[in-house]
Fold these 3 entries.
Entry 1:
Amino acid sequence: MEKHILALLGVVMLASLLLSGCQSQSAVVNDQSSKIQLDAHGLVKFVNSSLLQTTDKSKNVVSEKVSWMFENIAGRTISIKIDIQFMDVANHLLYNESKFLYYMNAGYKEQTFTPANYVTLSGVNAAKVDHVVIEVTEIK
């Protein structure tokens, strides 16, 4: 009998610990995929892309997350540098991050989103984002 009470007490304590850090999320996510520009120099094309803007309940922009998947259209194996540039309305650079993709076979299509396929901009500059430029250059 004591074992059952102790086990029940342990489960209740564990559940309360797990739930104590939870808070309601009131963020809204808006898809703005049309604001992504690809400058790929004939190396790749989008299989999928998205630009998601997250706002809080006061409609303040909290973050911008751009994600993509590419298909190699170069007709040969390539290695590429991907520059993700968050731009404001006046085309000023707010944030730049570079990613690299090595030995992408001819015709290869990325199938899933991985951490290598997205960049998130948070903070004050997130509210200033007008569009995102993804520039792809070949690594020789």
Entry 2:
Amino acid sequence: MPGTIIINMPMKPYLRKFLCKKYGETYKVSFYSLLGLFLLEILDKQYRKGDSKIRQKSSYPLIIPKTFVEKVGFDMPPQKMKRFEEMLVRLFKSELEAHVDLTVEFDLYINLNEKKYKLDVMKSIKNFLEFYNINEDDLKLESVYRDYKRNKTEIGQEKAS
């Protein structure tokens, strides 16, 4: 399609797998998703040379239709690419936490001791990662668990900041 731009957005491999499962092998920018709305906010018509470097880890193709290229542009300096990746990390964590909270809570464990709670949360995290085809090389299960635990006091209860 003439006028369409494809940006191969660099990101961590686990984020690429997350996006591929959620949106497909490529994503066509639109107003109808959170991802599209965020991308449209950070795209720019004016080219600015960035001074930060992006290391190519893995990439995910973003298709920007001609109408958006004309209206908002297609430039994305390295600082905005990093900001986009940070947003994806937050989106991933948010969906993971919601999944864990729902799956653990619906098993109706009322009297939780630390060991049993950990096993249930670990099982839920493992299921989430398997669903998105994320393996130990991409993201360590123990690290995800520690991060989850750091942000929660009880199931569904965020720690006060």
Entry 3:
Amino acid sequence: MSAPLNNRPETWRDRLVSYAAVTAIATLVWLWASNQTRHVAEANMRLLIVPESPETQAVGPSEAISVRVQFTGSKAAVDHAVDAVNGKTLSVAVGTCGVPSAVGGHELTLADVIEQIPAVESTGAGVRSTQPSFATIAIDRRSKPE
């Protein structure tokens, strides 16, 4: 036979402890969920495309491109992404982050390039849009001086 159930009546203290436990768990779940909901934030940055090897390549334009980036994701991810780029100039070498390394003219989708920058990629935030959306670069081969 099974052991008899405790038939003592529930006291006000038992109920209070139960309500407190349920309230604490619900609060933790709510806090976690609020941090996971979708957030959007913007940041201003400058993107500088640099040659893979300055001795053998030239990249134009040589000035950094001013970009307004809109991030989306959890609040924590978006906050980290904004902190990683806001007000900074980030350099991306040709042949990395989706920037081609072939000689010639190339149109870059800036959202794709910025999303692949390790400092942004590690945050988990996505790039919703950029202003401007595209940038054109030219890659040329330099001849070595003899």
